[in-house]
Batch of 3 targets.
Target 1
Amino acid sequence: MKRNFFKGAALAAIALVGFTATAQEEESKGIELTGSVDTYFKANLNASNTDGVAPATSFANQDGFALGMVNLIASKQVGKVGFVADLVFGPRGADAVFASGRTGVNTLGEIEGSSDLSAAVNQLYVTYAASDAVTLTLGNFNTFLGYEVISPTGNFNYSTSYMFSYGPFSHTGVKADFALNDNWSLMTAVLNPTDATEFNPTGQYFGGLQLGYSADAGSAYLNFLFSDDYFQADITTGWDVAEDFYLGVNATYAINDTDADSGFAGIALYPQYAISESFSLGLRGEFFTVIEGGLEDVVGLDADGDGSVFATTLTGSYTVGGLTIKPELRLDSTSEDFFVDSEGDNINALSSFVLGAYYAF
């Protein structure tokens, strides 16, 4: 399911001695280090495997045996304060931060320079629990929109969706998470332009808003990202329909008034079935469309700059210890002839196979 950042943390103490002992115990634990490594193999079934023909989504697009990323997350929580430093290395990590050691791309489509150090930073933020119900976060954090996340350990499918790839990846700013009660939550944020991680290159600020509901069987989140000339609405939900059956849904709509009302929209279903404790099957069915060429030539645009794609991805997931292996069959069908077959002819459908694997620690 979608990972969210409602981590309100407050230290419960009934006496000064108890508070001091608990704080000292937490201090002694030091910094917690978690993360993952991943790699994969990809082969097209109806197109060349040497010409870079691949679905126009992030990650798992290289031919043959390829690398994912190393993800190292250092974190610490002491009483009301904490931090997270999330570093990524490798091709998937470079895609996740738009290769920001060289260039960065913001929501307005503007290319910005950046420092070499940023090429490794996925998230970097500090937190403060102002009360039992309010947590403040300042820094760079992954987006609150959408169903899928950057780390392969947080997704059922190894390859990612179009909505994930062309929605925001991360934000830099300040956000406040409010636990309204046991089920309802609210998040508000003031942010730099999307994916402008180090600083604000335009002087423009975005607003973020999320209303969440969670229960034992699942959760639902209504998300908004907006500025004077940009608006995106997104809903993410997932529920345990039965003991072994789970259904997730994600829908999004984005419009940019600065570029002839260009934008995109999409919807995806994520049914998953647990066959055993170690093996599950999951299907992602996604419809994605661009408006007035809002995302360049990514799904096969017609003369008016419009285009759409329907993508179906069937993924198996086998886990043994910390290792998870994910065989995957995928079919992408575009409104125009976007792909090229092995004979060099333009075609509107691509079938591919991916074998992904990650180890989480």
Target 2
Amino acid sequence: MKENKILQQIIFDIIENQVRDANPPETKQTLERLLQSGYSDADAKKYIGQCVAVELFHVMNHQQPFNEKRYVQNLLNLPKEPFD
């Protein structure tokens, strides 16, 4: 699948905002955990970006509200891929 650079940048911006604002705090905690586990900053953010993409998919395609519980659970499971 072709990479969409604009969407990738939007997802990275979302991650940066969540880390900066500590909202939810699990985003920053997950980034730090992945970095401490030896992942590069870019790779750690790509993993987190998978979790963001799952939520964007549900919001956009299913008109569901952001599910913070699912998002946080997916973050906690990284580097395992998001379940939903």
Target 3
Amino acid sequence: MPWFLLPVLWIFTGTALTGFFVIGHDCGHRSFSNRLWVNDLVGHVLFLPLIYPFHSWRIQHNYHHTHTNKLEEDNAWQPFKPEFYSNIAGWKRGFYHLIRGRFWWIGSIAHWALLHFNWNSFEGKQKSQVKFSALLVLGFAAIAFPLLIATTGVWGFVKFWLLPWIVYHFWMSTFTIVHHTAPDIPFLPEPEWDAAQAQLFGSVHCDYPRWVEFLCHDINVHVPHHVSTAIPSYNLRLAHSSLKENWGEQIRECHFSWSLMKQITDRCHLYNMDEYYQSFKDYRAQL
């Protein structure tokens, strides 16, 4: 195969892996099947090549849905407040600069590595579930990766798994930051937070190239998913049409582009209640 076709295949495969995740995402919300064991089985199988512990993701993602855009509670792209940012270690500030700037696409990798393998941060039945999922994917990696390297070499591991996996995380990071980050989308403290308002008006519908939406099972149609997680991915467009009929221009919509990502990564850095988002540049100017 000509070498110059490899990037095309990495992009295609990584995007298709994101589609694997979206089906597992439905399983995590119990909208894939009426049977609990089917959701758990399919979710674990589809998450295996991603080395993603199913139960830890499921539990933490459902927490995000329970506390969407609630200040200091939501665990999906929660922005740092200036006073918190000023008191953390320098290397943490540097890393936060990266994932809130042009390296936003590694944010999902950090989220995966830091939050989903520590079963001691869970309790009771959830701890056992998370431990099972984490050990399952680690066991899979311990078998699959050496076999892949033994049969295709280190370069085979890189081109057949690592680079498509990075593309997958590019889409994961991009989808999630675009879904919940805009200069005029507020994160509110609990006394002021309203669940219905947050789910309906705090998430964003974004149009991507149709081939991306097809391979990723319309996960970009995000507003109805927050209104009800019971809606499976194949019904999101129909639900979005219904929401548009009832709420019209109040539904947030945008188109994926470099200018959109530039707006988010240039401005949406730190957060305060007065002006919502503040850029690192404006924060430094106030010091």
